[in-house]
């Protein structure tokens, strides 16, 4: 599928790159929202993090979950300090939001550097959770008076897909604060609502009559003629279509699972089982397909990823049949006769971290999940079909009460020709809420965006220049550093370096006043000059030429001073202070360099990207320094946990030391239980382990299935330990 950046998409990209306005990017199914997300990540200069409300959505967006990024509490959030009286549900409040959460320095530093947060599949994001995100960002970034702590947010999704889920007892309370559960009704967006941008070019459908019907369903404007047209595709004998490449879309997991299990059992021949290869940390809730995949020749399967070779042989949602299968290979043939050998695919569980040397946000792979990108495809739920494309589908919409399910199911198809209804679509009204209508009607046109971009860009650039040339942080850090010499505990060895420190302060101190004067000049230019951009670009270029050498010299002087220190073992605290001080000079130097480039690129109507920044001498020199001074620990993460466990530390102690959750450490140790290097009975007591083993057999693939049969005294880690031990026992018997 090719993706050409439309005029509207180009303006939206400019808005993201040169303003700080929040954007809600929506569009009908198949308009390229996910492709636009990838374009922004690849082309923006901003320090960007991608997140989503659920694990699978995060993996598909190549990001992380919002809960893991910000350590958000589970359950509902109330934007006030007290718990409401007489409620039968537990709520997190402003008073309790941070009471049970500890943010380490690495997490705080990462969050402080985020400039753009992209939230994908925002239709699943509740208003109360977004307010929780708002207050968390304000707290961690220490910018309590700025919505979302000054972070720009790009929301992506189609609100008229499936709505966010709220329990009835939660909504009884939340309805006192929110007019709907949708994200746009969050209190944090009231004074700064996102610009509502809708991509309008549809890539999935080419049948214009079908596109028009979909649009009317999406806007709740479907006519009796539309419903009659669709109901012409009702077939009471739909079951006779089995084996003809149709996928059954239903509203419930149980029904889809039953259909797939029955169809697989009906096939003759041997069943082949393929177990995924898991490396490092890859939790069950992130797994996009089966841990143990059972397939037969003749099975109808669906690809869940695009062709990694870029040849377009298959795509996410393409259906075919297994025509050849053995223990090592799977071949799938499509209706057009094309047969492909299915390659395995590796999904990655990522975490964002801040590179302390370059001050850039980087991705770190925590674990991977390698499996064939297939699922049995006689049936799938409407919920799991979001984002997929089908040529042929049987729609069972008898229970499609959730707002948007009819639209989602219909919009999976490429044309009316492939539609079969197992039951007729009712005439009932698929009503959408008033707040949804109001928000949907606020969509901005390309012309409106172009007009507003001029003002919004000016406001952002002036704000950015003001923040960049404000040297108050460095000034404060230097003063605090000088004060530290007067503390009794820091006397002796460190004290002899006070004269050098005073000399550094004298060299650098004047820049604060000069910077303040420069900021005032820029504000006057922006307020009074129509050609402010050209003038501001020129002034910033000259200011950069003045300030950067001063910052550069201070940075190098601090490093040289540190290198020349004698008796370094007695100066560990002092050397840490020097490193933190040098980092502040580098960060300010980096910010000035970046704003200088941004203004130049904006003046030339070019989009500044992170790649442009990485190609500069500043970035390259810093990376070279990092390679020289930093030795990487290449020990696998699970092995690190094993060594700590073997040293006598408990799972909880290891988790605390490594900044991970106990469940992750338990997952690491399960690898060594299965190999026989760790005794399961040392982790879980004998009675509990024996009880769990009675529930586990060769067909058991999901820890949640076992956990559901046990009491609350059993944890998921307990179950995973038992499953690993069961596999170890079976392996021992066969060897």
UniProtKB/TrEMBL annotation:
Gene3D superfamilies: 2.30.30.940, P-loop containing nucleotide triphosphate hydrolases (3.40.50.300). InterPro entries: AAA+_ATPase, DNA_helicase_pif1-like_DEAD, Helicase_HTH, P-loop_NTPase, PIF1_helicase. SMART domains: AAA (SM00382). It comes from the Bacteria. GO terms for biological process: DNA repair; telomere maintenance. GO terms for molecular function: DNA helicase activity. Signal peptide: none annotated. It comes from Roseivirga misakiensis. This is AAA+ ATPase domain-containing protein. Residues 19-326 form the AAA+ ATPase domain.
């Amino acid at each position: 599928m090719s993706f050409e950046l439309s005029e509207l998409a180009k303006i939206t990209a400019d808005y993201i790159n040169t303003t700080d306005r929040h954007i809600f990017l929506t569009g009908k199914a198949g308009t390229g929202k996910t492709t636009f997300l990838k374009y922004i990540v690849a082309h923006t200069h901003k320090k960007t993090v991608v997140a989503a409300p659920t694990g699978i959505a995060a993996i598909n967006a190549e990001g992380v979950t919002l809960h893991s990024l910000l350590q958000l509490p589970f359950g509902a959030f109330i934007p006030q300090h007290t718990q409401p009286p007489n409620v039968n549900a537990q709520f997190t409040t402003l008073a309790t939001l941070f009471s049970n959460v500890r943010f380490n320095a690495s997490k705080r530093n990462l969050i402080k550097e985020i400039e753009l947060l992209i939230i994908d599949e925002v239709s699943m994001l509740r208003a109360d959770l977004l307010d929780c995100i708002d207050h968390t960002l304000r707290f961690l970034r220490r910018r309590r008076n700025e919505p979302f702590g000054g972070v720009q947010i790009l929301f992506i999704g189609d609100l008229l897909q499936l709505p966010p889920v709220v329990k009835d007892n939660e909504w009884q309370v939340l309805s006192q604060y929110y007019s709907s559960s949708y994200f746009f009704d969050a209190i944090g967006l009231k004074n700064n609502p996102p610009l509502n941008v809708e991509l309008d070019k549809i890539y999935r459908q080419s049948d214009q009559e079908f596109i028009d019907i979909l649009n009317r369903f999406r806007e709740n404007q479907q006519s009796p003629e539309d419903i009659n047209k669709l109901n012409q595709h009702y077939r009471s004998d739909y079951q006779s279509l089995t084996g003809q490449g149709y996928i059954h879309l239903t509203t419930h997991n149980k029904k889809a699972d039953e259909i797939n299990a029955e169809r697989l059992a009906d096939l003759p021949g041997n069943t082949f089982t393929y177990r995924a290869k898991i490396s490092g940390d890859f939790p069950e809730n992130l797994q996009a397909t089966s841990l143990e995949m059972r397939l037969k020749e003749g099975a109808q399967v669906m690809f869940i990823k695009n062709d990694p070779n870029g040849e377009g042989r298959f795509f996410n949602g393409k259906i075919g049949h297994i025509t050849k299968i053995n223990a090592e290979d799977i071949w799938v043939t499509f209706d057009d006769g094309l047969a492909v050998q299915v390659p395995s695919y590796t999904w990655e569980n990522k975490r964002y971290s801040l590179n302390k040397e370059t001050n850039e946000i980087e991705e770190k792979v925590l674990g991977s999940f390698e499996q064939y990108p297939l699922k049995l495809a006689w049936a799938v739920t409407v919920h799991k079909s979001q984002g997929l494309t089908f040529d042929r589908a049987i729609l069972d919409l008898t229970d499609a009460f959730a707002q948007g399910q009819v639209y989602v199911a219909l919009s999976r198809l490429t044309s009316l020709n492939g539609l079969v209804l197992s039951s007729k679509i009712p005439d009932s009204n698929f009503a959408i809420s008033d707040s949804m209508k109001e928000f949907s009607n606020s969509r901005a046109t390309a012309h409106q965006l172009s007009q507003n971009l001029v003002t919004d860009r000016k406001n952002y650039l002036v704000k950015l220049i003001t923040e960049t040339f404000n040297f108050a942080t460095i000034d404060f850090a230097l003063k605090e550093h000088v004060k530290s010499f007067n503390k009794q505990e820091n006397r002796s060895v460190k004290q002899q370096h006070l004269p050098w420190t005073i000399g550094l302060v004298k060299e650098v101190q004047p820049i604060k006043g000069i910077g303040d004067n420069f900021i005032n000049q820029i504000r006057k230019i922006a307020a009074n000059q129509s050609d402010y951009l050209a003038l501001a670009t020129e002034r910033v270029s000259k200011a950069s030429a003045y300030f950067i050498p001063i910052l550069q010299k201070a940075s190098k002087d601090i490093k040289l001073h540190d290198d020349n220190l004698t008796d370094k073992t007695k100066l560990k605290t002092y050397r840490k202070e020097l490193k933190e001080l040098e980092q502040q000079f580098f960060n300010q130097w980096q910010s000035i360099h970046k704003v200088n480039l941004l203004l130049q690129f904006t003046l030339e109507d070019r989009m500044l990207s992170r790649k442009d920044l990485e190609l500069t001498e500043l970035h390259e020199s810093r990376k070279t320094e990092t390679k020289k001074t930093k030795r990487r620990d290449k020990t696998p993460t699970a092995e690190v946990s094993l060594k700590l466990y073997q040293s006598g530390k408990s799972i909880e102690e290891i988790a605390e030391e490594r900044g991970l959750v106990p469940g992750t450490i338990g997952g690491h140790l399960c690898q060594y239980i299965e190999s026989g290097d760790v005794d399961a009975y040392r982790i879980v007591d004998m009675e509990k382990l024996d009880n769990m083993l009675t529930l586990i057999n060769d067909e058991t693939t999901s820890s949640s299935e076992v956990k559901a049969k046990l009491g609350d005294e059993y944890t998921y880690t307990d179950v995973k330990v038992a499953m690993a031990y069961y596999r170890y026992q079976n392996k021992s018997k066969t060897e």
